[in-house]
Write a structure and sequence with these properties.
With 472 residues, the protein is an alpha/beta fold. The chain has eight helices and 23 strands. The strands form five sheets. It has a ten-stranded mixed β-sheet with strand order 1-15-16-18-17-19-20-21-23-22, sandwiched between helices. A five-stranded mixed β-sheet has the order 6-7-4-3-14, with no helix packed on it. Strands 2-13-10-5 form a four-stranded antiparallel β-sheet, with no helix packed on it. The longest helix is centred in the middle third of the chain and has 15 residues.
Length: 472
């Protein structure tokens, strides 16, 4: 396996191109005319030069949401510590963005505020149109023409949708860049005033929250002859003397042939398991392959990438200290179909599965009666919803207990937590929850109910906690 190495960069990535993510330290911020900003400072109590003259670098900070990665802040590094009490949302402007918070910090990080710090964190509204870094052909969070996997009329594998072997990307990753101007006075911890400036400064580094914690590798499968690029999160304090669970996340068809990091930025399906909060509760490896082509469609005859995925799981298991009794799979749309199919063909591979908006022929579903499953789908999903109902009917016919529930897709975090507790209390090996018709798509959104399902599904930590407690 060869490590994929990436360097800091600012070029915009287009569909099918390799995206560059940054882990480098910021260098001098570039001014609008391309010259390097000066770093001189006036004496305490005075003012010297514009604020832009004292900026050492700007770092764009990104965060992944249910609808994909967004640029959520700019960290401005000054040559001296800044007094955070003198800052307000009007101190800075960012082109095409809404400034929501401004505060000082001792590092280029969100929320860890300090009274003084060399970094000024300028937080931006994630609701801005320009915030979206994962966009589909019809805009961020909108299903692209041709479909994105099994689902409703918003796009489906099969008739009119992508077929096995299709390499057409359904989305694009945009490089994180922002242009900032210091519109008000900034005061250092010692009272030096850096006056407002008309100089526009552009970010020269990127910090991708959680995404940067994954490593990129390539797997050459001798059994199938296939090559799989993949992302791997290794627990921060990995100890080979311990045994860790592993979560496999498989993306939907819109992410094929985008970039190795595509599964990390399209939504929360991979990164949620690697968040500091989840890792504090359940240390685990997270594996997210990037498929160069569609693996399966509604004919249910997968390409050899299907078996290569099972072989990849085994390869990573052998390379690291992973508990074979606590390997889990999850995926959305195409990835959900693969999760179901892998559980049927390889019954000893996974201890549990989180199935999001996918289906499989009920005639082949009987082996799923022996698995621990949490299924989540929208009642508006005209393919996956009846498909999952048929599967659970087969599971029940095999004598396995199934809990069912209808949930409001626009519930609060507390309401979802209560919903999950209610299902857990029934202590069944299979849980089938559906979002009530008309509740999963936000008002005014053109996103299909199919796609909207996974934009919500991976925001519910209680389901992930249940998955992590299962063992073979």
């Amino acid at each position: 396996m060869d490590r994929r190495r990436f360097m800091a960069g600012t070029a915009t990535a287009t569909a099918g191109a390799l995206v560059v993510f940054a882990g480098a330290s910021p260098s001098s911020a570039r001014e609008a005319d391309g010259t390097t900003a000066a770093t001189g400072a006036a004496g305490a109590g005075g003012s010297g030069g514009s604020g832009g003259d004292h900026v050492k670098g700007l770092t764009a900070i990104t965060q992944v949401f249910g609808a994909g990665q967004k640029l959520v802040a700019v960290a401005v590094e000054y040559d001296r510590e800044i007094d955070g009490r003198t800052l307000s949302t009007s101190t800075f402007t960012v082109a095409d963005r809404t400034v929501t918070k401004v505060y000082t910090n001792r590092s280029a990080d969100l929320a860890d505020r300090a009274r003084y710090g060399r970094y000024v964190i300028v937080e931006l509204s994630p609701d801005d149109t320009a915030a979206a870094l994962w966009v589909t052909q019809q805009g961020g969070g909108t299903p692209p023409t041709g479909g994105t996997g099994t689902g409703d009329s918003g796009g489906g594998v099969g008739a009119g949708g992508p077929k096995v072997g299709d390499t057409t990307p359904g989305g694009t990753i945009v490089a994180a860049k922002a242009t900032l101007t210091q519109a008000g006075t900034v005061t250092t911890a010692h009272g030096t005033r850096y006056p407002a400036s008309t100089t526009a400064l552009t970010t020269d580094a990127v910090k991708n929250l959680i995404v940067d914690d994954f490593q990129q590798f390539t797997f050459n499968d001798p059994a199938t002859g296939q090559t799989l690029n993949y992302n791997l999160f290794v627990p921060k304090d990995y100890n080979p003397r311990k045994h860790y669970p592993l979560v496999l996340f498989m993306h939907d068809a819109s992410v094929v042939n985008v970039a190795t990091e595509g599964p990390l930025v399209q939504g929360l399906g991979a990164v949620c398991w690697a968040s500091p909060e989840d890792q504090a509760r359940h240390e685990a490896f997270v594996l997210a392959p990037e498929y160069g082509s569609v693996v399966i469609d509604d004919d249910y005859l997968p390409s050899t990438l299907f078996d290569a995925t099972a072989n990849l799981v085994e390869s990573v298991t052998q390379q690291y200290s992973i508990d074979r009794k606590r390997r889990y799979t999850t995926g959305q749309s195409m990835g959900a179909m693969m999760s179901l199919g892998l559980n049927i063909k390889y019954p000893d591979l996974f201890a549990a599965a989180f199935i999001v908006a996918g289906q499989w022929p009920e005639a082949q579903a009987a082996p799923l009666a022996k698995k621990d499953l949490w299924i989540l789908v929208s009642a508006d999903d005209t393919k996956a919803y009846p498909g999952e109902q048929a599967i659970t009917a087969v599971i029940q016919e095999q004598g396995t207990q199934v809990s069912t529930a209808l949930w409001d897709g626009q519930s609060t975090a507390a309401e979802f937590a209560a919903d999950v507790r209610g299902m857990k209390a029934q202590r069944t090996p299979v849980n089938f929850a559906a979002f009530e018709a008309g509740t999963v798509v936000p008002t005014g959104s053109t996103t299909s109910a199919h796609m909207a399902t996974w934009q919500v599904a991976y925001t519910i930590p209680g389901i992930r906690d249940w998955i992590m407690r299962q063992s073979m």
